[in-house]
Design goal:
By secondary structure, the chain is α+β, with helices and mostly antiparallel strands. Among the domains are: about 1-190, Immunoglobulin-like (Sandwich); about 535-605, Golgi alpha-mannosidase II (Immunoglobulin-like); about 615-750, Golgi alpha-mannosidase II (Immunoglobulin-like, Sandwich). About 20% of the residues lie in helices and about 30% in strands. This is Glucosidase, alpha; neutral C. InterPro entries: Gal_mutarotase_sf_dom, GH, Glyco_hydro_31_AS, Glyco_hydro_31_C, Glyco_hydro_31_N_dom, Glyco_hydro_31_TIM, Glyco_hydro_b. Keywords: Glycosidase, Hydrolase.
């Protein structure tokens, strides 16, 4: 046993096991979407002999561990002695079971352990099939027959066993010691979250499938007609010519460039799907080019691997090969991808990879990749590499100047560098809405900060109340997309009656008003590794009553959210952490003390959101049709004072779409500090050179107990001026309006 800074790690066993070179396996597979068992005879040739590697770690003093996405399970990992271990093996699992430890679409082999004075992580870098057993030892377990005087305190510990099918032991312990430092350490190891273009943080409208160009334009017009903002409309596999990616159906989508230009005139975008399987068609030039260039995965006999997917007989691109990734990236160039424009972005689906007639609906483990690597060795990296190649293709398409947007279903550690992730083919049920919260929190802890779940559920038809509650929850999560299967009823926001439309409109509009805050949080994710979505214990690491909470979360350090995830709810219990904190209910500005559980009445139009005392949040003011309007709209600042009368916050701005923030330091990072009755706006750090016309129109200060006698504004280089204000004594709220203070200028507001 070795001790370092109160961390005790015991390596109990590290082993590698070899069997004979050729082995026949009888494998029983559990198809967790049907709850049946199937027998599959998998006759595999394992070139180097079957093997496994593993390690046991003992984490002394820890009784709470998290991570290991992706599973449809609680935020805190469960003790596995009562059943199956956590499995990390990327699979196409539609309508997945809830509270299951079987693998889903992606894998991040990061385990995070937390206690009041320490956060640490264990990163097991292995892309083969992996199982993780978790065993908690009780804090105090004594024989009832033991006299009290002889009883001793038993310290908690968590035992973790890692077991992978192949590879080498490459295990990194991240020492923290606090959550923020752990996030930075993991980002330094695997990569920081890509800064998305602003439009990607707006609302996305999708279904499998919009019928044709007229259908797309009608949906686009419907959003305008019903005054619902949105940014992106999506096309699934039916937009192609016979499931041939990089093509367009000549009947339904005869003029795709015109369609994209029509959307771009409104500053909106189009996203199309691009899966990793390629239709076997000797008359299709792209298939022939991939075949002749050696870009397909091979079978164990050295022939091109073939499986069944949406096009029927398909071959699979070998994204593990740098040459294949480079070739695939070039397929997105405007001259090669006919009908595409610079406002077209991409969705990678089915990239676990999904093989309909393969074992567990995926690729055979003895398929062979570039360099002779068997698929078993890198299975969990397959989608990661496609995501990488797609993002690089969009960057190259713009000459390296524009940020890409790529959504991927499959992922691995580091996928955050390339774009967004979603939780796959969920179901329109209250249970799936509820489980989406801990699923997204687990992804966020593992570095996948830009994540979301299909609003309303992919399968089945949601009842109106469920749909409203899902929009309200998803509007307060990083990636915000409505999506559904083609056999489901249409569910555009205006199809469920005026009351439902109004509630959905409000949820989406509130999302757009919060875009300055969301964008600033993604800047922090991009530069410091801090996820926008955080479990309560990340912000309150010493509050033990937060350690198992997974139905509430923080957006950054300033907003606490408790989505309504059960039907017919009229009252919600909300934990407000830490005694001494002040929490302001955003719908009424009412102040509540922390360290309590609050019973809060809710209606169909409200979801509990609280602003933390000591924070400053910037919102946009005005009417949105899409995120491009943000550049013209003024800012409203909400200052929430803590018990010491202090508050602070930041605002990050750039051009919202290019890499100039990185290459030319063209950005604006401003800090707002409220102290001793003075609100200061100053540059945060070294800053950049970005200039814009965005102004602060109003300031609201919460927690002001005494009506001011005067409020003056001082702008650098100008004379002081008086500001009109309104004070609501019952709400302890001070509001200043008609300010027109440029965010790029230093200024100060003095409250006397």
């Amino acid at each position: 046993m070795k001790s370092f800074n109160d961390i005790h790690i015991i390596t109990l066993d590290i082993f590698r096991i070899f069997w004979k070179i050729f082995t026949h396996f009888d494998i029983f597979l559990r198809a967790n979407n049907y709850n049946k068992k199937y027998k599959y005879l998998n006759r595999l040739c394992v070139s180097s002999g079957p093997s496994s590697i593993g390690a046991d770690l003992c984490l002394h003093g820890f009784r709470n561990v998290y991570g290991l996405p992706e599973h449809s399970d609680n935020l805190q990992l469960r003790d596995t002695r009562d059943g199956e271990p956590y499995r990390l093996y990327n699979l196409d699992v539609f309508a997945y079971d809830l509270h299951s430890r079987l693998g889903l679409y992606g894998s991040v082999p990061l385990l995070v352990a937390h206690k009041a004075d320490r956060t640490l992580g264990v990163f097991w870098l292995n892309a083969s099939e992996t199982f993780v057993n978790v065993q908690y030892s009780p804090t105090d377990q004594q024989d009832d027959q033991t006299p009290p005087v002889k009883r001793r305190k038993v310290h908690p510990q968590t035992d973790v066993r890692w077991m992978s099918e192949s590879g080498v032991i490459d295990c990194t312990v991240l020492l923290g010691p606090n959550p923020q430092q752990l996030f930075r350490q993991f980002a330094q190891l695997t990569g920081f979250q890509a800064l998305p273009p602003l439009f990607a943080l707006g609302y996305h409208q999708s279904r499998w499938n919009y019928d044709d160009e007229a259908d797309v334009e009608a949906v686009d017009a419907g959003f305008d007609r019903h005054d619902v903002p949105y940014d992106v409309i999506w096309l699934d596999i039916e937009h192609t010519d016979g499931k041939r990616y990089f093509t367009w159906d000549p009947v339904c989508f005869p003029e795709p460039s015109r369609l994209q230009r029509r959307l771009e005139e409104k500053k909106r975008k189009l996203v199309v799907i691009s899966d990793p399987h390629i239709k076997v068609d000797p008359d299709w030039s792209l298939y022939c080019e991939a075949r002749d260039g050696g870009h397909f995965v091979k079978d164990r006999e050295g022939q091109i691997y073939r499986g069944t997917c949406w096009p029927g007989d398909s071959s699979y691109l070998d994204f593990s090969s740098p040459e294949t990734r480079s070739w695939y990236s070039r397929c997105f160039s405007l001259d090669k991808y006919k009908g595409s424009t610079s406002s077209l972005f991409v969705w990678n689906d089915m990239n676990e990879p999904s093989v309909f007639n393969g074992p567990e609906q995926t690729m055979s483990k003895d398929a062979v990749h570039s360099g002779g690597w068997e698929h078993r060795d890198l299975h969990n990296l397959y989608g990661f590499y496609q995501h990488m190649a797609t993002a690089e293709g969009l960057i190259t398409r713009s000459g390296g100047s524009q940020r890409p947007f790529v959504l991927s279903r499959s992922f691995f550690a580091g996928s955050q560098r390339f774009g967004a992730i979603w939780t796959g083919d969920n179901v329109a049920s209250w249970e799936h809405l509820k489980i989406s919260v801990p699923m997204l929190l687990s992804l966020s802890l593992a570095g996948i900060a830009f994540c979301g779940a299909d609003v309303g559920g992919f399968f089945q038809d949601p009842e109106p109340e469920l749909l409203v509650r899902w929009y309200q929850a998803a509007a307060l999560q990083p990636f915000f997309r409505g999506h559904s299967a083609k056999m489901m009823k249409r569910r555009e926001p205006w199809l469920f009656g005026d009351q439902v439309t109004a509630a959905i409109r409000t949820a989406i509009q509130q999302r757009y008003c919060l875009l300055p805050y969301w964008y600033t949080l993604f800047h922090q994710a991009h530069t410091a590794g801090l996820p926008p979505l955080r479990p309560l214990w990340v912000e309150f690491p010493r509050e033990q009553n937060t350690f198992t909470v997974d139905h509430q979360y923080m957006i950054g350090g300033a907003l606490l959210v408790c989505p309504v995830t059960e039907p017919g709810v009229r009252e919600v219990k909300v934990l407000l952490p830490r005694s001494g904190e002040i929490w302001y209910y955003v719908h009424s500005a009412a102040a509540y003390r922390g360290g309590t559980t609050l019973s809060l009445p809710v209606t169909l139009n409200t979801v509990p959101v609280f602003q933390r005392g000591g924070s400053v949040i910037c919102r946009s003011v005005g009417r949105f049709s899409c995120t491009a309007d943000l550049q013209q709209l003024p800012i409203s600042i909400t200052v929430a004072l803590n018990s010491q009368g202090v508050a602070a916050g930041e605002l990050y701005l750039d051009d919202f779409h290019s890499f100039r923030y990185r290459d030319a330091r063209s950005f604006c990072l401003r800090r707002f500090d409220m102290l001793s009755g003075r609100l200061l706006c100053r540059a945060a750090g070294e800053g950049g050179t970005f200039d814009c016309d965005t102004v602060v129109q109003s300031v609201t200060v919460l927690g002001v107990k005494i009506k001011p006698s005067a409020v003056t504004v001082h702008v650098s280089g100008s004379e002081d001026s008086s500001a009109a204000f309104q004070f609501i004594e019952t709400g302890c709220m001070l509001t200043l309006s008609s300010l027109k203070l440029r965010v790029t200028t230093d200024w100060e507001i003095r409250i006397s």
